Amino acid sequence: MTLRHLPSVETLLGSATDLIDAYGRPLTLDALRAALDSARVAIREGKPTPDSSQLLSAARADLEHRTAPTLRPVINATGVILHTNLGRSLLSDEAAAALVSVSQHYSTLEYDLAKGERGSRSAHAERLLAQATGAEAALVVNNAASALLLALSALAKGKEVIVSRGQLVEIGGGFRVPDVMKQSGAKLVEVGTTNRTHPRDLADAITPKTAALLRAHHSNFKIVGFTTEPTLDEMAAIAREHNLPVIDDLGSGALLDTAAFGLAHEPMAQESVKAGAALVIFSGDKLLGGPQAGIIVGQKALVEKLKKHPLARALRADKLTLAPLAATLLHYLKDEATRKVPVWRMIAVPLNEIETRARRWAESWGGSVIDGQSTVGGGSLPGETLPTKLAALAVPSPNRFLARLRSASTPIIARVEGDLVVFDPRTVSEKEEEEMVKSVGLALFHPLIPNPSP
Ligand SMILES: *Cc1c(COP(=O)(O)O)cnc(C)c1O
What we know:
The chain has helices spanning 9-14, 17-23, 25-44, 52-67, 93-104, 125-133, 144-156, 177-183, 199-205, 232-241, 269-275, 300-308, 310-315, 319-333, 337-340, 342-348, 351-365, 398-406, 430-445, and strands at 75-76, 80-82, 111-112, 117-118, 137-141, 160-164, 187-191, 210-216, 246-251, 279-283, 294-298, 368-377, 385-394, 412-413, 415-417, 420-423. By secondary structure, the protein is an alpha/beta fold. The strands form four sheets. A seven-stranded mixed sheet has the order 5-11-10-9-8-6-7, sandwiched between helices. A five-stranded mixed sheet has the order 2-12-13-16-15. α11 links the parallel β9 (246-251) and β10 (279-283).
């Protein structure tokens, strides 16, 4: 057998009509050439010459692989509710429906139906945000990092912003508060020490160049022991004396009290507004449980100033954000967030419900149920956990087993605790349960059949 027994690419293309239908001619041609190239290499190594149907299947497998989505759903069995790597918060059914609906229809994004003329995109989520937080006004941008950039650019460019040393945080993904401040053109004035900052440290640093006081939530770490920080009330009092705004970067920014669910109290947006922060910044996809967004609420005059800044246009939120955000906010206004918003449902689910599901899984796999801890994640509530029940499996090679689960048609992300592979029902929806139980069973009882992975 030699190279000249290989069919030509034109011949292969002639019998690849189904591939051309599915993937288009350019991609198909590319895949057929690649299949022929590999065949030539194999033949030179002494392997048999593949026939046309083998070459076509190789091209098909290649095309499937090349066009498989890389951003796709997974089952999160880690028990980390706001898992940044796995997409943070999940949308409620209503928010998801709102997203699909505006994505496939024209909408009132900037159209006033009553007047039949141009309207404002502020009419949607921003009105609801003001209502939900008690603020005078609101603005939605791409994410909380851009919200901070916009606020500092509009209010403090070329001026000074005073912040406590203990709050110069890095929140993951290399995002550092001081770096964002630098980008805005504001000059950072650090006061106090890592563990202790007193109100007078802030007051003493105020000069004619000061544009704002900034508070940044610690998010993902805790300073314990001999520590103190000015409260927001104290900061607001100092700021008022000097006619300066306080910008409060809450990070997660809850609208409900986490303390009602056995957790520490996470700062709430309403509290910051009430305490007198001029601008309060938080994420849409952390404890709010909506789409990725940066939310700014606060004094009308300042919010208007931000809206007029050129960066506001560059950072503005689109309809695919505003529609699900508005739907999510409605759950809070209707006092149904703990029933409807997945993040809060997962926080609030009773332990006995988790245990029932963990038992069901463990029984079906021949595993056991052990006590464990779920975490909220998303840069909120550092060190805080929720007691949970885990379905646990003893397998010969936990890490290989985890890899096998990741190759399931809907990948499953589990974790290892001690030498057990554990699954936390808290972050697995009822809808995902059947598929997950089946996939894990398959991995356990047919360990040698490789799962086809795209
Ligand atoms: C998470 C976080 C941010 C960034 O939020 P994104 O919406 O991801 O941009 C900013 N500040 C703090 C304190 C945070 O915790």
